[in-house]
## 1
Amino acid sequence: MNLPFAIRTIRWMVRDTFRQSLHTKLFWVMLALTMVCVGFCFSISVSGDMPPTTYEFEIPAYITQQEAERIGLDKVKADGIRIINGEVSFGFGMIKVPVGRHRGDAVRFVQLWLAAALADTVGVLLSLLWTAGFLPTFLEPQAATILLAKPAPRWSVLVGKYIGVVLFVSLHAVLFVGGTWLAIGLRTGVWNGSYWLAVPLLVMNFGIFFSVSTFLAVATRSTVACIFGTLLFWLLCWAMNFTHLRLIAYPVDGLSGVSQTMLDIGYWLFPKPLDLGGIFFDAMRADGFSMKLPELIATQEKGLFHPELSIATSAAFAAGTLALAANEFRTMDY
């Protein structure tokens, strides 16, 4: 079977995946959730401003205007404490939070919550949950035999479906990041281009764990197994990643060499969701925000955090898992 025919098969499966998303209404559900988040971002505004820290060694201290008046403005100024004279409001002024940072920092903090907490964690898990039924439905005998009767290599059929789902999620990642970025920029006047780095982070995170869902779909043809198996595997990877960072940051006396070796093997073998999140935090210049794990900060300070290897080994795991799934699908009887 020549390569051009396999490529045409993959392209057809990608189109079929988008057709399936429209048929099941999943496309519109995810688009509606994105529009809700964009609407929320349109309700954000920043008033006033605070100058950024002048020197790297300067430790800024801020208090609100009300607190400064209670203490005494002259005393506050003499002590070199800055008075917060602005605020970030949500819900068109329903919720107001004093601005304790520069305007750009306040906006970046909101974007970190949107990308790291909402999209990267909740969004990836929901995407894995909602797309878990794509492959088991496709692999049912009454559906698969129609495709397998055509002169197409089986691996191209499965890989095409995998790529189709990843591209489907990528489209919604672009819509989410682009829509919220545009809404926040129009409302605040702050256009933070590094926020777009959330797109490859979300797509990579999803693609890695969807490879596990793909393997489970081929092995079991069960949507329930895909959902719970992938979520449990995500928790296992999170725990493995956290334990590795924890032991580097705060070494434990008495840990046997065998246990340490097993933990190291597990860390480098499995995907690393916390490492990927840390890479995004660094790209967003999020130093000083409390959202970053202390264990990750301590690991970086010791020079033992290797982002390139984290990305490479996580991607290699996804490729290996997808290859196993394709091989299983190639030998499967219908």
## 2
Amino acid sequence: MATRPVTRDPSWVTLTEACVILGVSASTVRRWGDTGMVRTFVTPGGHRRFSRAGLDALLPDRPSARPSLADLGETPGRMTRGYRRATEDGAPGLAWLADLDDAQRERFRGFGRGIVASLMAALDSDDERTRTRRLGEAQDACGEYGRIAGREGLGVITLADTFLRFRRPFLDQLAAVARRREFDATATSTLIAEANAALDGLLLATLRGWEQAITAGAGLTRTVPTSRSDQ
């Protein structure tokens, strides 16, 4: 069986060479390879090689040149208002929210604002450590959100539905930002893919927090009515 040449083939370069070509960090090149922005393969010895043609295609308008969302004025507050309007316009309200008192409602909203701020900071960072730290903050907040929901007696289906009501408008708002700011197709698809991956982790953190509260017996007494889907 023919094997792919892996050494001194000018059409495939090492990680170090890819970093020099693009002028970005190794973690950024790896991330672009993982998301499919650059074709890669792994040698029998376990070393990654990157397509030289794919790297060259990124040079004119590579995603690292995408302006910061914060610098463009896309603040967490603006994003929150945008997806809240989309949620209110596109779907019926969440019935359980109406049964919360003002303090409870503000507590949930406070966690929501913190989650959005940390998520946007993670998406905006090219530094892997900063991204990991800010995503960790968002996951911690989601975990606490889930624990509070469990203690308040919120059912898991209603909790998941609440998260999904946030997810779609949030992604729609990111796509709208990309269109408004004229991001190229690669930058847009990468931004949405990274947001989707981050949101998957946030949903799992929320459900784990809810499960911890229920397992501890803190959510046995219901103070918030459940939807029919929870019964």
## 3
Amino acid sequence: MQAGHLPTPKKRFGQNFLVQPGIVRRIVAAVAPRPEDALVEIGPGLGALTRALLEQLAESPWPLQVIELDRDMIPVLRALAPETRLEILSSDALQVNFGDLADSAGRVLRVVGNLPYNISTPLLFHLLDWRERIADMHFMLQKEVVDRIVARPGTSSYGRLSVMVQAACEAESLFPVAPGNFFPIPKVDSAFLRLKPHAEPLVPDLLKDDFAKGVSMAFAQRRKTLANNFKGTLNGDMLRSLDIDPQGRAETLDVPDFLRIAGALQILREGDRT
């Protein structure tokens, strides 16, 4: 399809449509969908990836599910396949209960999509809430966001997003994607990301809130020391007792470090209740 014949992309939806068949084939090869998969695509747009996924799922006993917020795209998608093969959810993915989708399929989900740049981070956190119902996720994102997700401690890209995602999933940047693969052509590079939830949660449920709080506090002001960022909550002696340097900075800490911080925050919180 030529760019001139495409519906006008809407800035409010952060739409950049995939238009190059080569990159679509590479995405499908990375996802490697099987007929037995319960596959959900977020943000199908004009259906370039949807069409390719439908070909791979021709023998599937249930439909490919797609979540599309832009109602103008629904007729375009509806023309791709009958309802028995393609179920279209006209909804905001941030509001979707992925647990219900997994229940309907009777199995864990595989989620894929070209995520809108303007909601990519909140959408990732929403999906992480359902990670026990998801086998894996494959997403097209801004390369800068992918670099932050897969960054290691001690690097400039490492931050709150890195810790929170890596605590929940194995994260792998699969390949970069040039701007020319989209219409309209974005001003940034993209990359294709694979997330696979850990078989055993690294963060116990009883520590989830304290873990998130500790990560947020540590990275509140990146240039300040941990002693400064935790001032009034965890003093220097407390941090040293956790084998953490109070004069260090948040980017030096890994997930186990933040787990120890979460444990200390939990003890303090429970102590305040007594």
